[in-house]
Amino acid sequence: MLSHVLLALALGSAAGQAAPTSPSAPAPAPEPAAPHPSGEIHVTGIPLVSYGSDIGVQAGGAAYVYRLDAAGERSDWAALGLSYTTRGPRSVELKGELLRVAGTPLRTFVQAKGSLDTSAPYWGEGAGLGGLGVSPGAGSPPEPYRYKATSPWLSAILRGPLLGGLGWWTRVRYTHVSVDEPPALLLREAPPGFRGASSTLFHAGLVHDTRDRVASPRSGVLADLSGFASPSAAPLSDHRFYGFDAGVRAYAELAPGVVLAGRALYDLKRGDVPFFERTQYEGITYGEGLGGSGTIRGLARDRLSGEEKLLAGFELRAFLAASHLFGALQEWGLSAGADAGRARDPGRAAVAGAGVFGGGRLMLNRAVVLRVEAGYAGQGAPAYYISFDEAF
User: Can you tell me whether residue 224 is helix, strand or coil?
Assistant: First the structure.
């Protein structure tokens, strides 16, 4: 099945593409192409049929529209995606990024998403499984730990420079989670927001960004530090809480096409924190976890949830070969690494987990990354993922 996915990806990238520059990976590589005209627009359509241990069969597609700069690297971009899974998340998402807003040094990222999750995880207070004798496993949450959630998600980031690679950034994000079909565990423990709630967070922070490129960086550092708060002001927010986040991601090219990447994250929320906010980590590269293809590969989705979270990991990425099929550039490679995390709610014992992973990767036109990975975290069986974009 993986070969079918990769073939579909290559075919879908053909429309409207000119021959891009040669990759940084070693032979076999095609002859270098002439530099791209600055601002050249490309469209990449990606049909998606895949499988993940935590979400089941996934079907959908995405359309990427992006510019390539004079060096052939991705600059401004936008993407529209549709996704349906048999074990939970289903969504429609529109997101995009402008690297120079109206020709100024300002940079922005915007995301709008509507989702339905038929197997959203709730692992009990303190992520302690509520005393139930049901193992979480490495895949979709078992019946006692799942609920049905619907939610809109809106987020906007604005960045600007200060000095050198140092800059400022702000973010506003809104979500309203509706809780349907709650399990007995959720009703019994009745955490804040267990009947559904709204959250609006206002962020402000600093960012240090010296990465050589946005898509799959080869060198540099992305570090950020921020504080955030959610006021209790219906209908924007039903709970008042606050916190801060610190993260760093570093990249070093060990040899042409071979990159060592690492990250560390600390996230803290305090106050009247809705239970669904415990799975979210903030910062400029915000996301959901810990557990799954983007955080700790091999753990069940969001298995390590809590108001205080730590995440660390590293991976070795190697692009070993390149091709020019259907007028588009494909870079093929392998990756391997390890992830670890820890989460804790006030007054409760911490939960922790770690895993190792490895797999194959494909980058299209230095803009879109496809990862096919297996992860193992001691949960009885390995987990499998087919994912787009880098984990970090």
Answer: strand
